[in-house]
Specification:
Helix content is about 35%, strand content about 20%. The protein is built from eleven helices and nine strands.
Length: about 270
Amino acid sequence: MSATLNHRITGEGAPLILLHGLFGAQENLGAIARQFQKERQVHALDLRNHGSSFHADTMDYPSMAGDVLAYMDEQGIDTASLLGHSMGGKVAMQVALQAPERVEKLIVADIAPISYKPGHDAILEGMKQVDLTCVRSRRDADKQLAEFVEIPGVRQFLLMNLERIPQEEQTQGGPVYRWRLNLKAIDACYDNLAAAPEEGTPYSGPVLFLKGEESAYIQQKHQPEIDRLFPAAQLQIIEGTGHWLHAEKTDTFVALCHTFLDGEAGD
């Protein structure tokens, strides 16, 4: 499989790169892409080991940031604004710390530049325990996954990673479905994904952190580290939302992003 990140480009104008979260894919930010493509050239990416992008045994923030920078080089993009949610927000932060001269503006959705305690053990175990040889529909997989993941919406999100194996690749009595993400690598590299981005040059450009009011991913105690690495950062809280703030209140999320991206640097 190609080492170029799978991507979808829509719209025209200044480039905006969208980076999804853990277990996600570019489609998760589709509503955001549709809003921004009216005035920007939107690059929605599948990060390594996710969606239809390449699989790799290595998975950490410097390598994932390197993938994004390589993509920018391939597309002839000197500088771009980056918008990342959760894990994608950490990747975006790593790009800014690693190559600040390549980042016009940075939007980080509901994640801080810190290390988090493991919080996806049940999800990882559940996905590993799904017996794909017994799965003939997403409903079959959902029943198995429900033993580990209680919330239906979370299961629905995870099952977006289940894809039907092309007929010509199926074997007699073999599985009909497979995980399109690299579950083995994500599981093996999970500690790297829970870690903070690796330090580089503090990014002095404009940064907007967006926090879901009901989410604990960004807390007051994280502010000193945010200020140290991103001295020009501002924080906006979207009321009545959790970690999936971009999906729960898309219009509010997009409006805040528009105001930030359209404003002059330093506003």
